[in-house]
Design goal:
Length: 165
């Protein structure tokens, strides 16, 4: 009985080690791909094609069209940055952007539609943040300037009260 139990435990450990080794190989390969940038560039190209040709307008008609126009106007570096941002967003939810882009979810129509809509809307949120960047920069500068003025006024009032005493 103990011998059978020991074999089962050994088998479980062996499976765990095998799974870990497989995960480690995948992690190293993806790390090398990130270091070389080849995987990032390839995904960015496939992502741009997906947006242009395969993003279903019925998911978000205005959103898909806005996204297409925006991505068309991005340079290669911009497309890569957007793709990296979207891929990291997807990874946070244990989703691989390539599943959507490479149509691996084609048979899972409802899931594919939900994830595609999520990606489109996230991209539009990124676009809105980029579009707001100039005004946001002005706001931050003005905010810093106002804080400096308040600080100067407080320091001036403090210095005046000390000299009056």
């Amino acid at each position: 009985m103990t011998r059978t139990r020991f074999r089962q435990q050994l088998s479980d450990v062996s499976a765990d080690v095998g799974s870990f080794a497989s995960d480690l190989r995948g992690w190293v390969r993806s790390g090398l791909s990130r270091v070389t940038g080849s995987g990032r560039r390839a995904l960015a190209e496939r992502f741009a094609i997906w947006i242009e040709q395969r993003a279903d307008p019925s998911l978000d008609r205005d959103g898909v069209e806005q996204l297409r126009l925006w991505v068309q106007n991005l340079d290669q570096q911009g497309r890569e940055a957007l793709t990296q941002q979207v891929a990291e967003f997807c990874e946070a939810f244990e989703i691989d952007l390539a599943w959507i882009v490479d149509e691996e979810l084609k048979e899972w129509t409802q899931l594919n539609a939900m994830l595609s809509t999520t990606v489109i809307r996230y991209c539009l949120a990124c676009k809105a943040a980029v579009d707001a960047d100039d005004q946001l920069r002005q706001f931050r500068h003005r905010r810093v300037w106002r804080r400096k003025l308040k600080s100067t006024a407080k320091n001036g009032a403090f210095a005046a009260s000390r000299s009056a005493s």
